[in-house]
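A quick aside before the break. I want you to see a complete sequence-to-structure record at least once, exactly as it would be stored in a machine-readable document. Don't worry about memorizing anything.
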Amino acid sequence: MGDSTWTAAVSGGAADAALGLVAELAGRPRATPSCVRPDLAGGGPGPALVYDQLERCRPGEGWGAMADGYLTASVRGTGRLGTTAPGLHAGLAGPAFAAWCLSRAGPPDPSSESSESFEDETLRRAAALADGAHGVAWRDFDVIHGLAGTGALLLCRAGESPHVERSLRAVLTALVALCGERGGFPHWFTPAAAIRDDALRERFPHGVLNWGAAHGIAGPLALMALAGSAGVRVPGQDEALRRTAGRLLACRTEDAWGPDWPGITGLDGTPDPRPRSTASWCYGTAGVARSLWLAGTALDDAPLRETAVRAVKAVHRRAAERRDARRSPGLCHGLAGLLQITLRFAQDTGEAEFRRAATDLTARLSRFREHGGNLAQDGPGFLDGAAGVLLALLAATTDNAPGWDRALLLA
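That is the input. The structure line, written in tokens, reads:
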């Protein structure tokens, strides 16, 4: 994933404090549970990823056994749950992704154990999305439950087998179709009947456009871009990238610091008025900007990449009261997610401004508890909990490549 030359962006006292916090929260190697929740969002795969990174940083201490133990327990959890859903953060793709990240002989990969049903379900969902329907629920295509997340796993494993190749191409074909238009609106708009949020459905009775990285179109954009950069293309993919990136550019606003994006808008462009985390991965400008950077890379579009860089710099330059990611430490809508995006831009651009911002965010996470916060306030999991925070801190302070952030479609 282009991480062979990954270097720590944060050093000195900020790195020492962060690594001390990681050591404190990780504790010592110990026995693992025999069966845990299998979802990547909040279950066993998250700790498995943390302990795998610790094994890479401090080999021979026993962290690898803990990583394998949590993965084995997660696989057992899939059997207890009995799901066939191929989603990344709530389905079979989550433990399979953790197995790919660990890249060691050991526990079984749940998607390969039941590869036929995994492929069948993926192909069924891809066909349903590609059938030309105008207007879909965002969970059908998003990174959390939908095809963009499933595609993230498949892209990791591209070339492994014919069934992986077939499934990946079906997902990309479906997402290309999703980016088509009818009557001036993209197929990925969500009609009111498919909106689960009562208040949102009442406010936008004609439907909404979801622009975010977690649940919106920025996620499929990132997957298509990453696949294109890896040489995996289906007919219409580059045009879908250009069209979708153009829509994102058209819906942005500009303030004194630079570009900003809404999370959700009505079909007429009216934004959802409820407060949102503007400096986050899930719905924030930083997550959208990363998707635009990836699209600019796949299309060799320098102005698009420049807009992405300007947008992330704007996130960091906005007044302190606008940096509402401080209220949560996690990857999804908090400081850790903004840190990981900032690290990716620091790695890709080499700009000192991003390294300084990463150092500031790392220090803020290290001091989070001093202000009454709890890094595990949302549990031990990957997406909102302690696992994601520890992974971001390790990415900031060590030279170990953070391949795990493919689960956020950041690289």
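Two observations worth writing down. The mean pLDDT is 92. Residues 26 and 51 are 8 Å apart (CA to CA). We'll return to this after the break.
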